[in-house]
Amino acid sequence: MIKNWFKNIGPGPLVAAAFIGPGTVTVCTLAGVNFGFSLLWAMLLSILATIVLQEMSARLGIVSQKGLSEVIRTEISNPIFRTLAIILILSAIVIGNAAYEAGNISGSVLGLETLFGASQVSIYDFSFGIFPIIIGSVAFILLYIGNYKILEKALISLVIIMSFAFLITAILTKPDLSEVFRGLFTPQFSDESILTVIALVGTTVVPYNLFLHASLVKEKWKNKTDLKYARKDTIIAVVLGGIVSMCIIISAASIKTFEVSNAADLAKGLEPLFGNYASYFLSLGLFAAGITSAITAPLAAAYVASGCLGWSSNMKTKRFRMVWMLILSLGVVFSSIGFKSIEIIKFAQVANGLLLPVIAGFLLWIMNKTSILGKYKNTIAQNILGFIIFGIALFLGVKSILKVFNVL
């Protein structure tokens, strides 16, 4: 039974690996430090929303055997709207992932540096990091092999390491369980916490994961009868990912009087309270979170570009490899020299803020088309849940854009 379960683990853990990157770790850290357990409900909401949308994406991929960007390109008949949709998607996913890739690699480097110390090397007047090159090389090898099964096994192993690392860290902090459950099931709002709530949901319900999932499921499953495995895989992986995020919030809530601005500070802050063990586990988790996202972000960008431009989505084709190589290379270079592409990241935030409700709305439209999904189209219950999430995505999109332009 266990062997059969492992055999049918598929793209779900890759989706979890994609949304638990250094950005998620940092947002969850700040949520815990600033608001204790009181925002755990926002993570619970994020998990439910992610399960609903990712299940739709997986169902579309298996039934149609097409990626989401490919369906968008073929289903929008108006050439102006189609061009605008393709430009928006390419901007948000490809350029956005290039901006975030430096953060993914930098986050993984933070984990390694907390364990092993700094890794700067100077040649003449030029200084660069060794760890970003090592992490980039590992990601390059796994992606270049172009074998889905090898990539899947590598990422599942890293997700398991990450999950255990953050879970053990949270257990070591010995949280008050009654406070944890109160935070989970009693929503609390305040003017101070609203932007953190937006960040928690926004860092979990990720637009590029909808594209990634639809493309990956067709690598794993070819028959509609496999939908039950895809659903189980999605639910287990997203719930596991959500628990990891909650563990980070719980760990951070233990820090009361320490200046914390990122996950590396959290590792240092835990040392006086719980010794080196919590710090080591947290650093290992941060490393795994960074490297998994450093692999999935270029992969998602390549799938999106291929679907939007009508290229083959075979992982071994030159064009497919060119896209992920470009994203990965930019991430390694920017991370190595310590370049912070703030303006690019701001652009990516605006584009993603626009993209999430657009993609959620398009996904709902597609999931109700009998011509594409037949009897596997959305039920009334799935549509109700989908429209609630669409409303939340629209609200978050507007809020995030206003935040970037300092209107909020």
Principal-axis shape equals globular
Order of strands in the sheet with most strands:
1-2
Count of individual beta strands:
2
**Oligomeric state of this protein:** single chain
Main β sheet profile:
2 strands, antiparallel
Mean pLDDT: 80
Helix content: over 70%
Walk me through the topology.
Layout: H1 2-7, H2 12-19, H3 22-35, H4 40-64, H5 68-75, H6 79-116, E1 120-123, E2 126-129, H7 131-145, H8 148-172, H9 177-185, H10 194-202, H11 207-220, H12 227-253, H13 263-274, H14 276-309, H15 318-336, H16 342-366, H17 370-373, H18 380-404
Antiparallel strand pairs: 1-2
Describe the 3D structure:
- The protein is an all-alpha fold.
- Helices cover 78% and strands 2% of the residues.
- It contains 18 helices and two strands.
- It has helices at 2-7, 12-19, 22-35, 40-64, 68-75, 79-116, 131-145, 148-172, 177-185, 194-202, 207-220, 227-253, 263-274, 276-309, 318-336, 342-366, 370-373, 380-404, and strands at 120-123, 126-129.
- A two-stranded antiparallel sheet has the order 1-2.
- Helix 2 (12-19) crosses helix 8, helix 4 crosses helix 9 (177-185) and helix 6 (79-116) runs antiparallel to helix 14.
- The longest helix is centred in the N-terminal third of the chain and has 38 residues, at 79-116.
- It starts with a helix and ends with a helix.
Quick structural overview:
The protein has 408 residues and is an all-alpha fold. It has helices at 2-7, 12-19, 22-35, 40-64, 68-75, 79-116, 131-145, 148-172, 177-185, 194-202, 207-220, 227-253, 263-274, 276-309, 318-336, 342-366, 370-373, 380-404, and strands at 120-123, 126-129. A two-stranded antiparallel ribbon has the order 1-2.
